[in-house]
Write a structure and sequence with these properties.
Elements: E1 4-6, H1 13-23, E2 33-37, E3 42-46, H2 62-70, H3 77-82, E4 91-94, H4 101-108, E5 112-117, H5 120-134, H6 140-146, E6 147-151, H7 154-160, E7 163-168, H8 183-192, H9 199-208, E8 209-218, E9 231-234, E10 238-244
Parallel strand pairs: 1-2, 4-5, 4-7, 5-6, 7-8
Antiparallel strand pairs: 2-3, 8-10, 9-10
Helix pairs in contact: 5-6, 7-9
Amino acid sequence: MDIALICNENILAPKAKKLREKWGFLASKSEPFQLRLLPDYLALEQLDDKQQGLVFVDFASGAVAHRRKFGGGKGQSIAKAVGIKAGIELHVIDATAGLGRDAFVLASLGCKVDMVERSSIAAALLQDGLERAYLDSEIGEWMQQRMRLTHASGYEYLQNNQADIVYLDPMFPHKKKSALVKKEMRVFQGVVGADLDADDLLDVALAAAKYRVVVKRPDYAPFLNDKKPSMSINMKNNRFDVYVKQAIGR
């Protein structure tokens, strides 16, 4: 999708120019979505529905920070699905990073996470969030050690890289008028779209993973590539399908 990056702050104009050159964004207006470079962050905006609000990546505060502090630690479903254990540092490839929230949770629990995102829009938002978080006095040091981003196709990346765990959360078409889909995710999905080739990811993920592949799915979605997992961990609106190759630590 061709999308414009708009900047109304003269002091930020050089940065806006660099971002356009790096990611291929337009300088003129685009509909119905645009990116806005603001003093505090880079944001995605839906122009034909202002009520949706701005979408940006913030690892240091807000809901993501609250989840890190009060979300249940290693007792969370995602930690159980990935197989986090005391004394074992897992290397995770998140091949469909999106807005990076699950990757951040895993990194906060001690995993080293390589985020892979093929959408230039999502990757730019992620990079902006990472750069700000790296400077944060509370989380910056360990984030620099545990989280990095690659702008690439998850499928191609998995063909050339390996990790202990491969994590997949492919974009799945949400139910129309579903109250379960947050406003910001509706904006994000409107730009990125569904991962129609998601089924192809499972085989390359299984080849790249040493211990297991974890697939996050809406509760109403079929198994990825119609392949039954070793186990599933059900949550309120989603589930984790876990494909176990061998016990962790062997």
